[in-house]
Give the backbone structure.
Amino acid sequence: MSQGNNQIVVIGASEHNLKNVNLEIPRNTLTVFTGVSGSGKSSLAFDTIFKEGQRRFVESLSAYARQFLGQSDKPRVEHMEGLSPTISVDQKTVNRSSRSTVGTVTEVYDHYRLLFARLGKPHCPECGTRITSQNPEQITDYAYLDGLNEPCIILAPMVQERKGEYRKELEEWAAQGFVRARVDGEIRRLDEEIKLARYEKHTIELVVDRLKITAEEKSRFTESVEKALQLGDGIAILHYRKRSTENDNEIHHDEDHLFSQLMACPSCQIALPEMEPRLFSFNAPQGACPTCNGIGQTSIFTEEKLCDSKLSVLDGAIQCFSEKGNLMYTKIDQRHVNKLMDTFGISKKSLWKNLSVEHRQLILYGNTKMKLGVSNIFRFPGMLLKKLEKEQWAGFIPILTFVNRFVKRPLEKFQHISICPDCNGSRLNKMALAVKFHGRGISSLSNDSIEASISFFEKIKPTETEQKIGRDIFREIMDRLNFLNDVGVGYLSLDRSASTLSGGEGQRIRLASQLGAGLQGVLYVLDEPSIGLHQSDNINLIRTLRKLRDRGNTVLVVEHDEETIRSADHLVDIGPTAGMNGGYITAQGSLKNIIETPESITGQFLSGNEKINIPSKRRPPSNEKITIHGASYNNLKNIDCEIPLGLFVAVAGVSGSGKSSLIDGILKKALTNNLMKDSKEKPGDHKKISGLEKIDRVIKIDQTPIGRTPRSNPATYTKVLDPIRELFSMTPEAKARGYKKGRFSFNVKGGRCEDCQGAGLKTIEMQFLSDVQVPCDICRGKRFNAETLQIFYKNRTIQDVLEMTVKEAESFFSAVPKIHSILQTLLDVGLSYIKLGQPSTTLSGGEAQRVKISSELRKKATGNTIYILDEPTTGLHFQDIRLLLSCLNELVDLGNTVVVIEHNLDVLKVADYLIELGPGGGQYGGVLVCEGSPEHLAESETLTGKFLKQIFCEAEISKSSNGIEKGKVLGEELVNTYGSGEQNLQEFKGLEDENIRNLITQRDILIKGASKNNLRHVDVRIPNNKMTVITGVSGSGKTSLAFDTIFAEGQARYLESLSTYARRFLGRMDKAPVDTIDGLSPAIAINQKSTGRNPRSTVATTTEIYDYLRLLYARIGKAHCPKTGKPLIGYSSSSAAAYCTNHFDGERVELLAPLYLPDSSKILLLDHPKHLSNVIDPLLKEGFVRININGEPVRLDEWDEISTNHKDQNGLEFTRDTTVDLVIDRLLVSKDDQKRLAEAIENAFYRGHGLVKICLTDQNGETKMLSETPANVESDFFQLEELTPRMFSFNSHLGACPTCDGLGGWSDTNESLCSDCDGERLKPEFRSVTINDLNISKFCQFSITEARTQIENWEFTENQQKVAEQALGEIISRLKFMEDVGLDYLTLDQKTATLSGGEAQRIRLASQIGSGLVGVMYVLDEPTIGLHARDTDRLIKTLKQMRDRGNSVIMVEHDLDTIRQADHLIDIGPGAGHYGGRVSAFGSPSEIASKKETLTGQYLSGEKFISIPEKCRPLKQDYSLNVNGAAANNLKKLDVMFPLGVFTVVTGVSGSGKSSLVVDVLQRALEKELNGKQVKPGEHKNIAGIEKIESVMVINQDPIGRTPRSNPATYSKVMDPIRDLFASMPEAQERGYKKGRFSFNAKEGRCSTCEGQGFHLIEMHFLSDVWVKCDQCKGKRYNRETLAVRYKGFTIADVLEMEISKGAEIFSSQPRIKRILKTMEEVGLGYMKLGQAGNTLSGGEAQRLKLSTELARRSRGETLYILDEPTTGLHVDDVARLLNVLHRLVDQGHSVLVIEHNLEVIKTADWVIDLGPEGGERGGQIIYQGIPKNCISKPESYTGKFLEPSFNNSAESRVLMSNLN
C-alpha cells in the first residue's frame, strides 16, 4: 500500500461555508474535528467525507436497490481519495415512534420472533392444551402404544353440533359404501331409516373401519386413519378401550381419542395460524392485538377530556370545535349542535355539569348506530341534519372516533389512555401469546431486562433439533444482548418504548450495534457522541471509540468535549470563527500542535489561556421556590424536589437517571397547564407541585432552526427587519413613489425580483449531484427589482442592509434606537459575525439558540419567568458555551429563573444550585442523590461531585501550569487507560511503508465453523489487504466459502447500518451459517457474467455516463424547434421588458395579449373567434378598453353595435382565420419606465396564456411575438414543460420515441432502424436539444476516446460551467477509467447484449477502480471467465491496483497463471461434493506447489499436466459446415469453414466476435433448421453442409433442475429402470405395488409428512435457512410400507443415498442400469450420490452430467455439440476430465465445436479458428485457421503468442517430444 493510501485526502471542499479546504487525515486513527459553533465541522465531516464515502459504496449495489436509498448527492469537493465505506452513528436519531422499542431498534426482537416461529411450542389460547400436527403414522404409533390388542372404531367427524335433518348426506355416504355412522353418540346403520329433528343440533361421525389394534392389522389401521383424516378435514376419532389403574385395580373404559392433522386444538376447535415471524410482530396485522392495534394501550374519547363541566354547550362545553365553529377536521358545525339541542329539548344555556346523565350520554354517544363515512362527515354535512329531523343522532364520540382514523395526533388531548384490557399491554393477540419457548412467552421474555435475558439464554438446554435449527438465532441474540450489556444499558428491558430513552441511552444502543457488526476498514463518522452523556459514561464512550479504531477502522468524531479531544490521535480545528469567517483549517495535528497555534481558539482553551471562570461567589437561594412532591413519572422513585427561584439551576445525573422526566415531563407541563387554562398537556405522575403561582411565563429555549426555509433569517426572526423596512419607506424617494413598508420585503410581490421571486438565486436541481445555485440573471442575486433598489438610506439599499453583519448594522443604525437595541442584543450573545439576511437554514444549532435568547433578552423583564433548557451546550464549543453562560446569567440577573438539564462540567461549575439524580440509569436511577451548590456536591463526592471536585482542584493548579499539565490532571484516568493519543499518532507516522501496511492489516479475516452447503465446519484465515485465490475441483465448496459465507456476511453487516426503510428493498441478506467471522470489511461482489441482455441497456447506461448526460442536456442543453431547427427562446416579464428596451427604445408600442391565433396549437382564451361575445363583459369589468380584430382596434363599450351575427366592423364573419388580441397597454418604450413596461408584459402573459404581441405603431403595425415558455412562435412550436432528465431517457414514456417505444428499431424485421427516430430512440423535441450542436443520441455514437475528446473541448458560459462542472467531472472520470481497462473502442450506444463476458467484466471493474474506495473486500467469481490470455494480464494488473489501494481481493479462480500471481492461495477439497468442503492446503502458490499434496499443487509444480495429443485428427474432404458472409455485430462478412468429425475450438481476444459467429449465426441457424426452433440467426448469406449432421446439441452449465426433487438419477433417466426393478420384487408384487410407488414425487409411496423431500426447510428469514430431517421418515423420503421392499438388501431410499460407483457395482447384473451408471462414473462423477439434489450441483458437475447422458444415449446419427466456454468453474483436473469426454464424443463419430480461451483446451484441439485482431470494431476478422501448433507462427495472433510456451517450453511438450523421438 502506498503512503498516500494511509491517509484520507480531501482537496477543494467547499460545502456551505468551507473555503476550498484541503486536508489529510491519517487512516485507522481516532480523529476529532472541533471548532466554534458554525465553523464548518459538520460540513466537512458529514456533508463532504461521510456523504462521499457512502455514495461510492452504495453505487456498487444493484440499480434496483439504489433507488430506495435516498438521493445520494455528490458533495462539492474537487477530489477525495483514501475513502472507505462510511457509516454514520447519530446519537440523537433514535426512532421515536410509539411502535418502536429497545427490542425492535436493536433487532433483538426480530430474532425473538424468528425463535418463537421456528422453535416455539403452540398452545391453545382457551384451554392451554399443547397443539401439535400429527400424520397418520404418528396417530397409528400412538394408538398401538396406548391401546394394543383393544378393539377400535375409527371415526371421521362429518357434522359437529349443527342443526338439520342431513337426509341427503346420509344417503350419499351410504352410496359411497359406508355402512355405519355414530349419530349423537349412538352407532347406527346407514341402511336403516334415520330421522333427525330439524331444529336440534346433531353430531354425526362416519365409521371408517372397525378392527382390533394388532401388529397384523397395522397397515390397514394406517390406511383407515388416513381415510378418516381425509373425510374429517384433518380430524379423526379413535374409539377404543383404555386401561388405567385406580386404587391398585386395573379398570377398562371405552373413550374417544381425538387426533388432528392440523395445527388446531382438537377440543376447542381453534386453529393456529401459520407459525411465521410476523405472527409475533405487533406491527403486523397477523400478530397485533386487534383491540389496541399493537400499541399496548387504548385511546378512548371520554367525557372528562372532551367536555368542560363549567361551561354550557352554547359557550363551548364541547371543546373539540375549532375557532371557525366546526367540529375539528369535519364540516359538522353549530347548525348541527343547535338542531340537536332543539330536537331533543336540551337547554343550550345550562352548564354541562347541570345536564342530566341521559342528555350528556345522548350528545356524546347518540341514540342510534349510524354508518359514518367520508360523505356524511367530511363532504355533505346536510346528511346528518336530515337524520336529526328523524330524531337520529350518531353522537360526538363515534364521530370523533371515525375522524381519528385519519388525523390522530391533534385529537389525542381529548382521549384517555389506558392499558389495553385484552392484551394487558403486551401488544400481541392471544394466538401469539399462547406460543411458549421453554415455558416462556415472547411477551414475558421481552419484559425482562437485558441482563435477565442473558441469564435466561445461558441457562436453557436446547434439544438436538432446537440446537440445529436455532444455532444461528441463539448466537445472534446472545451477541446483541452481550454488546448492549457491555455498553452499560443492561438495565433496560427489551419492551421499553424507544421514545422514553434518553439521548445517552440511544447513543450507546446505536454504538453497540456497530461494535456487534465487527467490521474493519470502515470509516465511522460520529456527530458529538458525548451528547447527553455524564462524565462517567463518557469514559465508556471513549473506550468504545478506541475499540472501533483498534479493529482497523478510521473514526472521525465531530466533538467539543475536552476529554474526547484530549484522547484523540489526531485533531482538526476548524475556524477561526463561525459563518462566513469560518470554513478554514485553523490547526491540525497533535494536541501540542493545536495548543501551540495562536489562531486556534480551541488551543487557547486547552492551554488554559482562555477559560470559563468559576464564579467568585454564587447567588444565595431565597425563600421563593417550586416544590415537586411525589414525582414518580417513568423511573422516578416518588421523590420530592425543590427548585429555588431567581437562580441558575442545573439538573445533573447519569444518562437515564430521570432528569428529563422530572423537568420536561412534570415541571414544564405543570407550569404550562397552570399558565394556559386550555392546555391539554398532561404532566407525568406526581402528587402535587407547590409554588406554581410565582411564575408568570415558562419558555423553553432549544436549538431547533428559527425557520425551515432560506427566506427566514435573523432579521425576520428578531423582528428587526420591520423597523428597517419602515425606515426605508419613510425616505423622501419612497414617499414620492408611494412605496409602503411592504415594498421592501423580498417575500411579497411589488418590490422583489419576480424572476427569482426574491430568492436572489436560482437552484438548479442536479438530482444525484449536489444542487447548484446560480445568481438570478435579472437581479444579479440582489433579490429586489431595480425600482426598489433605487431607494437609499444613507447611501445603502435594503439589499445592502441585509448583506451587513450584525456588527456593521449596529454601527450603521446607531442613531435609530428602535433598531439599535435589537441589534445590540445580538451582539451581546456573540453573533456579531452573522449577516442580517443570512438564511436561517445555514445557522448552526448553537447560533439558532443564541438568536432565540437574544429575542428574550430584549423583552421587558417580569422577573417571574422560568427558562428551561435541555442540554443547551449541544454542538457548542468552549467559546460558545462561555457566551451562552453569559446570556443565561443575564436572564437570571433580571430576576428570572433558568433551569438547565446538563452534563457539561463548565455549565455545572458556574450554576448557583445543582440537583443530581441517580445513582444509575433506568431502574437503578430516579432517586434524588444530592442538591445544593456545586461545592456541596463536590464535598459529598457524588458521581457528579467527584468530577466537580477534580475541576475545582484543577482550577487551583491551572493558575500556574500550561495546557499539557492541565490535560494530565483532567484526563488522568483516560491517559492511564489508553495511553497518549499523540504518542500513538507519532508512532504511526514514524513507520516505514512496509510496517505501515502491517499495521493497517493487523487483523486478518478469521473464519470459524463455516458450514454452508458442503463446507465441513471450515476454519480458515485470509490475510487482509492481499490478493487471495480460493481454488479447488468443481463442486468442492469454493463459492460456498467465498460468496455464500464471506461476501454474504460482509455485505449484510455493512448494509445493516443503512436505514430500515432502505434495507426493506435490498433483498434478503441472509446470514451465513458460520460460528464466527472476524476482521470482515464491507464487501462488494463483482460478477463478470451478469451482463444484462435487456435490449434497452447500453454501454452508456451501464456505466451511468448516460445518466449524467441526461442531467447535462436537461440543465444546459439548448432546445431547438424540431420543425425548423431554430432555437427556442422564453422570456420572463423582466427579460421581455429588457428586450423591448434594447430593440425598440424611444418607439411607441402597443402590448397585446392574443386571445385567438389562427392555425396555432397554443391553447388561448378563445377556442373560436365567434365566442368573443362571451368574454366582453368580464373584460370591461376588469378595466380593459380595446381589442384588436385582424389588427383593427375595437372599443369594448361599443361592442354591442357591431357584434350582430358575429361580424367584425367591416362586415366580415368571424372565422378561424380571424385574429383577436386584447390591448393591454400603449406606451413609449423608455429605460426610465421599466416598471410599467414589465408590469404590462406580465399582464399580457397572464391574459395571453404565456404570449405577448408587441405591435410597433410607428412602423405600420409591425408585430413581434414573445413567449413566456421557450418557443419558436413562428413555427408554432412551444416547449410545454421545463426540460428534465427523464425526457432524455428512452426507457421513460416521457422521452421514448412512441413509434419504436425507445428501442430504436426492431430486431425481427429487415428494416432494423425506426423510421421516425432513425435509431436515436427519443421523441423529436428532445432530439432537438443540443450542446455544442450535438444532440444526446449523436453524442452517444462516439467511441469512448472520441467522447472524452469532445467533452474536453466543449465551451460554456460562466453559469453553464458552474452548473455542468460536477456532471462533466463524473463523465470524464468514467470515460478515462474505461480507457484504462482497454475499452476505448466501444461506442457509448453499443447495446450491452452484444458485449462479450470480458468486456462486461472490465466495465464493472472500471467502475470499482473509479470509486477509489479503500478498506473494501472485493469478492470475484472467476474473473478470467471469457478472457483471452492477453486480457487476463490486464485483469491481474487491475486487481493488483485495487489491492495496492488498501483493499482485500478474494477471488474464486482456476486459471493457473492467475493463481501464480496471488499473494495467498486456499485450496478447497480434496474432492467434490461430500468428499470436499475442507481446506486441503493454504499458503503462497509457491509453497503449495512445493508440497505437491493437492491436485492444485501438482498442476502448479508441473507434476501433473494436460498433455498435447500426439497428432491432430485429419480433416475429411467435403465434410464441413461452411458459413458465408457472416456479418452479425462486428463480424466483417466472414467466410468460415467448420470441419466436422473433429474437435474444433474458436478463440480470440474478448470482443473479437467468437459468440457472434458461433452462437448468433451458426448455432441459431442450425437450431432453426434442424430443431424447428423459432429464433433469428445473426446476419449471414448462407450455410452449406447442414444436411451432413442429424442434430445439434448445446451443452451448457445451467442447473439440471431448480428444485431439490431433481437429481442425477432422474436427469439421467436411470431412475426409470431402477423403479421397474423394485416393482418386480416379490414383496412389491404381493402388495400390488406398481412402478410409481417407488417415486418420492408420487403420493402413494412417499412420506406424507415431508412430501417425499426427506427434510423440512426451516426458513430463517434474515439468517441462513436450515434443513432438518423429517421426524417421521428420518430423511428416507418414503413411507414405511414402500421401504419394506428391498433389492439385494437395499431399499429404494438406500439406492438414492448410494454413490454412483457403488450403484454401478450393486446393479452390475442389470445391463440397462449399469450402462448409464458406468458412463457417469467414466466422466468423473463416481463420487456423486444418485439422489443428490440437482440445485446443489456445481456448474461443472451439471455439465458433465449432461455430457454423460449424451454418451450413454443410443446413437441417433451424427451430432454437432456446441459448448460456449465449458471450462467455466472447472479446476485444471476437471478440464482434463472434460476433454476426455469431448474427445470420446468425437471418437464416436460426432463433432465438437467449442468457444474457449483456455489454453489447455486450445492446445488439444484438432482445428483452431482465431478471430481478432482486437475487440469491437477492430475485431471480427479471421486471423488464423488450422492446427493449434501452427498458430504460434502467426505474429498477429495473440493466441499464438500465448500458445507458444505450451508447445516449446512446457513439461508436456517435452514429454511429447521424447515420445516422438
